[in-house]
Structure formats: structure tokens, C-alpha cells
Amino acid sequence: xxxxxxKVLSWTILGIMVGTGCGSxxxxxxxxxxxxxxxxxxxxxxxxxxxxxxxxxxxxxxxxPGSLHPALSQGTHESIILDHVFxxxxxxxxxxxxxxxxxxxxxxxxxxLTYTFKIRQDAKWSNGDAVTAKDFEVAWKxxxxxxxxxxxxxxxxxxxxxxxxxxGSIEEDKVGVKAIDDQTLEVKLASxxxxxxxxxAFYTYxxxxxxxxxxxxxxxxxxxxxxxxxxPFVVTEWNHDESVVTIQNDYYYNKEAxxxxxxTFYISEDLNTMWQMYENEEIDIDYDLPTDVIGQxxxxxxxxxxxxxxxxxxxxxxxxxxxxxxxxxxRKALSMAIDRQLLIDEVVQGGQTPALALIPGGVSDxxxxxxxxxxxxxxxxxxxxxxxxxxxxxxxxxxSLSFTILYNTSEAHKKIAEAIQQMWKDNLGVDVxxxxxxxxxxxxxxxxxxYEVSRAGWIGDYxxxxxxxxxxxSWSSQNDTGWTSEEFDKLITDANSEFDVAKxxxxxxxxxAIFMEEMPIMPIYYYTRPYVTKPYLxxxxxxxxxxxxxxxxxxxxxx
Length: 559
Prior knowledge:
The chain is built from 16 helices and 28 strands. The protein is globular, with a radius of gyration of 23 Å.
């Protein structure tokens, strides 16, 4: 393909990452907003909007990606890049609606168990190879292969025998995905899954070039020089800890609809640096704003600010394997002793909603909104919290409590942690320390239960209550609390095999009630996504369960 060389913005290192221990999302597809200590020079800022007449959009994706392979990526700092360089069987259009992507068409059997996709004949990889059904079969089986160690393998348990293969109990050829021929992909599900087409637009379901994958494993995805993808853009440079440079994919079947010549994703975890770069016109969009900036922009009704919808929950995890967090009374006491609305009004300032349950509003139930029908589970009551804490500590043989909140480095997370730290001190007499670390290190420590209380966030992978519930099953790699419940697991299993919508939702409501009664996490607020865009950048889209998307964007800057 024709390569367009783009000058990379230079960086000056002002600091170093603070880390203890050795990583999306998040796999967590966790929400990221971190500090890495980078700042930028001003000298090259104007070169980046249009280089030699090209339209290059610029934004900051977050921290250094752990991987840009669909099977191995696990955080929003990775998925925002993948969503621009890959395309699944389904995709999101300019209105963020799920529509056919690599699939030209599809058929669903009457029992909802078999999907037959026809791959578009004009679909090509960025190296010119045709996209085939085998590319999907190879990609999905690589995710499920137990040797791969994909944190998101459970997202393909919807496939027939997907979980059994991932656990090593059956052979690969028993998995319910098969290339019938180059254009025909047959997918068999373990049970009817109403949101399966939406999953087919999720990054873990993206294809990989089968020939390249079989020859090099995942090594092709480690550097820009060997990167091959099938989406509107392709990675040409991965300057580690600095930037990921993409240009338009000349082989993309819908190339005429793509107006940008490329997108440069800068790597930084410092919200103040991001905002400074936005003010200096070194980036064109900033979707991780400092909390004080959000408050200021809202107060002045700034025209560049958008408060985007977000299907996401900001919460603190408890390590339930450690005393006294193994005691539900202690967990409930801590949850009851904070003022969520005050935190939102004075600290977060983005129009968020207090989270008094796990699942946010905006998710359909059999008879309306799931959250409205499910009601609230959390009561903020300081006196009751004091009583529960005293009882819980006594049961654990303790008379006082001190612990550490772990959070990924970010001024926003720090301010929230400081506010909660003070609330717990004032309301319960609890001594709390704060520890910040790089995002990927935080993820690794959560996976190994090397923490006491940890900050987290979760964006729904698909628009269904199950996307928030199934991450806390005993088999989920995203649980990271040490909490398990056979009754909860059974309800999720029953819901996943129930075709009747009303019965399925009843299972999920019951599962959420059990979860909130046990409270292995402390929900804090339901996200919004405040972001700013320069007036010359148009066509930005934002789905409720995705970060900002520039696939359909354009730059029209006056000379």
C-alpha cells in the first residue's frame, strides 16, 4: 500500500511513571484516565492538523497499549485504536447503529442458535489480501485457545463449546465457528443470545489475517511496520510510549466514505497535559478532561463541550479474600458512609448520576428500563454505617480499620480518592492511605488480588444487563474481587440459556439483588463522557458503550 509519512509530535519527558508491582479496558475493558508524566513541545503543533495537505486528526488514547492484537487487548486505551483500524462482521454507522460490516448479509435460524454470515467479496486487508471467513474462524479460536491467555476469552463463551475449549476439555474443531468457504462463516451458539450481532462489532470478535497469524502468531501486531488490519485505517508507526500513527487503509472497501487521511493517537496519561495540548491546538479532541475544567466549561456553556452518554459504572473493588473486607458488614458500612451526590457536585462535576446499584439506566428490561424496575440497593446512612462497621470489625477480631486505596495515576482519580478518604475518616474514623500506579500495573495487581480497595470502571461491552453481571461470575477473568456465589453463577447461567425475555430479565434482576446484598464492589457513580472538539473537527460520533469515534470525522480548517 502507499505509505504517507507523518511527522510525529515530539515529546519532552518531565517525569517518570510511579509504579509498584510488575495490565483494559481493561482483560479489563476498564475505563482509563491516568498520568504518565509527559508533556509536549509547541513547535510541531500546527503541522499535525494538515501535513502536506493531508487531514490528520489527533487525540490522546491514554497509556501505552499492552497489545494491539484483538485477542490480547483489554483496555479502553487499546480498544479506541482497534475500533479505528479493524472491522468486525458488524460495525457502527454514522448514527452509532449496529449494521453489517465485513458481513455482506446474515441469516439466523429459527431457534436463534445458528448464524450464517456472508463475507463481502470486496473486503481486503491492508496488505491487499482478501478478508475471508477463515480469518474470523482463526481469530476467534485464537482468543479461546487456552495457550493464548486472553483475558477476554469469556466473551466468546457464547459459541458452542467455547468455554469447554478454553478450559482445555475439548479439541478446537468442536468450537461453534467454521468457515464453510471463503465467503461463508457458520456460527453455532451454546444458547440463544439476543445481543450476539452487537457482540460481532466488539473488538474481541475482530478478525485477523489468518495466513499472517498462522505464520507469526501475534508478533505481527507488535510494531507498525508489520501491522495488518482490515478497517478504515491501518497502523504504520507504533512509537512506544509516544504515539500510534495510523493512515487511511487504501484497500478499505468503503474508502470513499472516509474523509480523514489518518489519525494519530498520542500516548499520555496526564489529564492536565491532554488539556494543555488541546488548548494549544496540538490535539483536536479531548475526551478525558480534568474535573475542574469540566466544571468551568459547563459553567460557561462552552460550545466545544459535549456531555456524551456513557453506559458505565465507576466503582471501588473490595478484595474479599482479605480481612476485614471478607466481611459483608464492613463492605456495606464503607458504601453507606460516602455522599455520592456531593462527590459528583464538588469533585467530578460532569453531570454524573449517583450509582445506587450495579447496572446503569438506559438498558432495556422486558417492561421498560432495567434500572427503574430494579430500584436502588444502596442507602447512605452514616449512623447505620458506624453500627455495621463496629459489628463487622468485632467479628474479625479487630477494633480499628486502616487500609490503602489503589488507583491508576490520574488527577481525577486522585481527587475522588481524596474526597472518599476524607469522608471515611470523618464519618467512620477510618484511616486510609492512597497509592497510585500506572494503569497496566493496576490491572495486573487486581488480577492477582494484590490490593485492599481498588478504583475501577466498566463500560458495557454490549447494551444488556448481563454485560455488568457476568464479569462477576466465578469463571470470569474480570471478577478481581475474590468473591464468588454459586447461586449468582446459576442465575447467570440460567439467564444465558433462557429465550423468554421476561424470564431472562427476572433471572438478571435476582442476580443483581444477590450481588448488591453481598456488595463485593462499591458503586459510586454512573459515568457521563464530557469531551471537547475543535470547531474544525466535525462528524465525531459517540455510542453509549464506546469511546469517541473519528471514522466518519472530517477536518475543515481555514488557512
